[in-house]
Amino acid sequence: MAPASAPTDITLDSVSVYGFTAVPASASLLLSTTTSTAAPFIPVSEIPVPDTALSERIKRYAQSNLPVPTYNHSLRVYHYGFAIKKHLFPSWEFTDEAYFLTCLLHDIGSTEENITKTKLSFEFYGGLLALNVLQETSNTSAPEATAAPDLAESVAEAIIRHQDFRDEGKITAVGQLLQLATTWVDNVGAHTELVHSLTIEDISRHFPRRGWSRCFAATLRKETELKPWCHTTVLGEGASARVLGNKLMAPYE
Question: Is this prediction's pTM over 0.85?
Answer without folding.
Answer: yes
